[in-house]
Amino acid sequence: MDLNFNSMQDMLRKSVAEFLAKECPYERVKELEESENGYDPKQWKKIVELGWPGLPFPEEYGGFDGEFMDLVIIQEEMGKRVYPSPFFATVVLCGTAIMEGGTEAQKKELIPQIADGELLLALAQHENDPGYTEKSIKMTAEAQGDSFVLNGTKLFVLDANIADKLIVAAKSSDADVTLFLVDAKDPGLTISKIPTIAMDNTCEVIFKDVKVPKDNILGEIGQGYETLKKVTAKAAIAKSAEMIGGCQVCIDMTAGYAKERVQYGKPIGGFQAIQHYMANMSIAYDTIYNYLYRVAWMVDAGEDATLSASVLKAKTNENFKFIADRAVQIHGGIGTTREYDVSLFFRKAKAWEFMSGDTDYHTDQVVDRILTAMPEW
Could you read off the pLDDT of 161-220 as tens digits, one per residue? Predict the structure, then answer.
């Protein structure tokens, strides 16, 4: 196992970091959070020109044949800037869904459009019944001739408000989950943003008699949940990378503040309690950072990383919340205000826990795998 970055990956990290620092400082992030679109289309066009959306896809589908490790590097650097963009929803979630579950014709049609920045996508999976299992998907897809009619409500659909198409999980008449490609401008859709602590682009999408041709089924009927499980595993790794990038910045910001903030005649970083807080934050970060790149290596090596992805996301969920919470405690009450940039990460830490599987879900996945592997007594 070689966890060293090659020269191309070092260059990629440097270029992503420099671009985001220049194009989207934290003040700009706050402006985008408050905008209707939630991202900057001009910046997205520049990102497309740099080739990031096409990097993880094979050349035969219009991509640049990069490694999964490259995607993780981009996500980590985006996490350091809490950068709002369609990258995670379009490239990571929906791009993975198409590659894992789509037909050859769908890959050839849709992936080049993602790589060229012509197509923005959103994955509509979650509903009122919280959870990530097949049972939590209750939306119906009723067969009518050569089409299916979708009715129901999807919640927390990331970037639905800016998407061209939605990938929608619904249960067809045989009660198996099927994925449908739906035009986001369909008159039967009602899309509205949900106000959240993270101020991100999560939306409620209401479907009322939305007619979808059978040709717009992603892959095969009844195979949707198998595809979603593969998407969740890879997306959990990518989202963990984004969260771990945020962890590093929380630590750096807080260490700087602890050196400058004077209380009782000396910097607060000189007090043992603060030093222990900082040490525990660093330990929590190192644990997940090193594991992240081990899991990313497993994906590129063709190994089954499903269990490791769950271990990583479960631990990252908790460690990011811990690190962000300690960062705000050291800053004091002002750390929760928009005046201080650490508040950006404090808000995201809680919201991102629920993207691509919360701690309970991934812990259950680990338990199931362990019990399955145990010998009979």
Answer: 999 999 999 998 667 999 999 999 999 999 999 998 889 999 999 999 999 999 999 999
CA torsion, points 244, 308, 294, 279, in degrees to nearest 10?
Answer: 40
Q: What are phi and psi of 9, to 5 degrees?
A: -70, -35
The predicted-structure confidence for 306-348, as pLDDT tens digits, reads as follows 999 999 999 999 999 999 999 999 999 888 888 899 999 999 9
Question: 287 or 129, which is more confident?
Answer: 287
CA-nearest of 285, 281, 261 to 271 is 261
What is the CB neighbour count within 10 angstroms for residue 211? Answer: 15
Neighbours of 113 (CB within 10 A): 17
Q: Which residues pair with 213 in a beta bridge?
A: 147
Distances (CA, A) of 325 to 158, 289, 305, 333, 336: 25, 18, 29, 11, 10
- Residue pair 179/110 in contact by the 8 Å Cβ criterion: no
Separation between Cα atoms, residue 221 and residue 302, nearest integer Å: 27
Is residue 97 a contact partner of residue 107, using CB atoms and an 8 Å limit?
no
CB 116 within 8 A of CB 91: no
| Residue 302 identity (one-letter amino acid) | G
Name the DSSP letter for residue 217: B
The pTM for the full model equals 0.95
CB neighbours of residue 375 within 10 Å:
4
From the number of C-beta atoms within 10 Å of its C-beta (0-12, 13-18, 19+), residue 79 rates as buried
Q: Are the C-beta atoms of 271 and 240 separated by less than 8 Å?
A: no
- The arithmetic mean of pLDDT across residues 345-367, rounded, is 95
